[in-house]
Amino acid sequence: MIRVFIADASQRILDNVTTRVGKEDDIMVCGTARDGEGAIQECLRLQPDVALLDTGLPSADGLQVTELLSQYLQHTGIIIMSLDVEQDLMRRAMLMGAREFLGKPFKGDELISSIRRVYKFEQKKNELATVGGDGGTTGDSSAPAGPTTLKGSVALVISAKGGVGKTVVATNLAVALGSMGAKTGLVDLSLQFGDVAMHLGLSPKRTLADLASSDAVADEDALAQTFGGAHGVKALLAPMRPEEADLITTGHVRALLGALRSQFLYTILDGPTHISELTLEALDLADMVIVVTDYTITSVKNTKNLLQVFTRLKIPPERLVILANDRDPIKGLTREMIISHLEWPELLSLEHDSQLVNTSIHNAVPFVISAPTSAVSSGIFTVARQVAPDLFPAAQPGPKAPAKTEPQPKKTKKRLGFART
Ligand SMILES: Nc1ncnc2c1ncn2[C@@H]1O[C@H](COP(=O)(O)OP(=O)(O)OP(=O)(O)O)[C@@H](O)[C@H]1O
Ligand SMILES: [Mg+2]
């Protein structure tokens, strides 16, 4: 039975929703409230499966209630209802932890499908968390409280040239993994001009620079105060001023990743573009390295150089994923040319979609959330499958098309338009 809590200032709406929900055999209304404070108290007591909250509640509005409940009730899925369907309001609701947004007036059937979807999602999330995702917030209540003991893995997203889509990939990948219920962290190691905050709509109060300057990168409390949370992931943001980047040392990176492995099932690093001591440290520690290139001659040439550096560093090819991002439709090379030049048959690809990608950056809502079935999201889920195969049982592909391993290319002798390196 799905237990639903409803909060709305209007008694008429409470009655209508209760009547509609009452027609379903497997859904029941476990409580109602007409103001925000009542909603918080009752939800904490009743722990519903799904809470349906109106934005215009008196005393504490629906978004404030959402923020609080998503902190304390990790197994309650929240649906926001609102007369106002402004994009910004939807975005804020999602940032606070709501899973769905219903514009008023809505049809009864829409409401029921939304409740079922949110309930299913929460169930899936809890299953994954019990398998190892949330560090013991479910399951055995006799398990010791305190620091978690996950053995999470780390994936570094890197590129040999700026602007090829590294941050787009890192943020959407982290959010995709988070959306599948895996506890996921994201670190902006693009320390001088990091963009993760912008892509996720976070305004940093504390950043990696604060952790580093107090040598507290592995301190659980300091980390908790520094994480910014959005769309189901916890992010550590790059310093606010470029000169603060120097505060972060290789020792900090090593200690930080050690601490994050015990808190997150997956940690995604949005890496720097240049090879520095810090990049080498991250490369050494990462379980998987995702190299992003676009289709331009310069980017592919530099990627080839980077792969040669990896060979010299003895980074095993099994740890590498190469992703060709069709960032610019006026591209210089074909996929086959890239495969041939890089000698990398398993090249993954990300489709071009200016409209979706740029809108998602502008609205700070990653496209894997706003358009999970789009081609470009499908590309991200393909990468997610490589990073986290356990999240993709064989019979259950990602949200859209099965994540495809790219077909074996024909070995082409076609010469590229630039000198061999
Ligand atoms: N698949 C895509 N389709 C269309 N446009 C894309 C795609 N991927 C990325 N872009 C565009 O490329 C821009 C650069 O992306 P992003 O900021 O992720 O690059 P980056 O590699 O992180 O850059 P930097 O080196 O500055 O960190 C985006 O703002 C977006 O406009
Ligand atoms: Mg970037």
List the helices and strands and how they pair.
Layout: E1 2-7, H1 11-22, E2 27-33, H2 36-46, E3 50-54, H3 62-72, E4 77-82, H4 87-96, E5 100-103, H5 108-133, E6 153-159, H6 166-179, E7 184-188, H7 196-200, H8 208-213, H9 220-226, E8 228-230, E9 233-236, H10 250-261, E10 266-270, H11 277-285, E11 288-293, H12 297-312, E12 320-325, H13 335-342, E13 348-350, H14 354-363, H15 367-370, H16 375-387
This protein binds adenosine-5'-triphosphate and magnesium ion (MG).
Magnesium ion binds next to helix 6.
The CATH superfamily of the largest domain turns out to be: P-loop containing nucleotide triphosphate hydrolases
CATH topology of the largest domain: Rossmann fold
Q: What fraction strand?
A: 15-25%
Provide the low-confidence segments as ranges.
132-148, 396-421
Structural class: alpha/beta
Instruction: Estimate percent helicity.
Output: 40-55%
| Distinct ligands, ions and cofactors found in the model | adenosine-5'-triphosphate, magnesium ion
Highest CATH level, the class of the largest domain: Alpha Beta
Shape: globular
The overall number of domains is: 2
Assembly annotation:
single chain
Description:
The chain has 421 residues and is of the alpha/beta class. The protein folds into two domains: 130 residues, 3-Layer(aba) Sandwich (Rossmann fold), CATH 3.40.50; 239 residues, P-loop containing nucleotide triphosphate hydrolases (Rossmann fold, 3-Layer(aba) Sandwich), CATH 3.40.50.300. Helices cover 41% and strands 16% of the residues. It has an eight-stranded mixed sheet, with helices on both faces. A five-stranded parallel sheet has the order 2-1-3-4-5, sandwiched between helices. The radius of gyration is 23 Å and the shape is globular. The C terminus is likely disordered. It binds adenosine-5'-triphosphate (ATP) and magnesium ion (MG). The site of adenosine-5'-triphosphate has 22 residues, from helix 6 and helix 14.
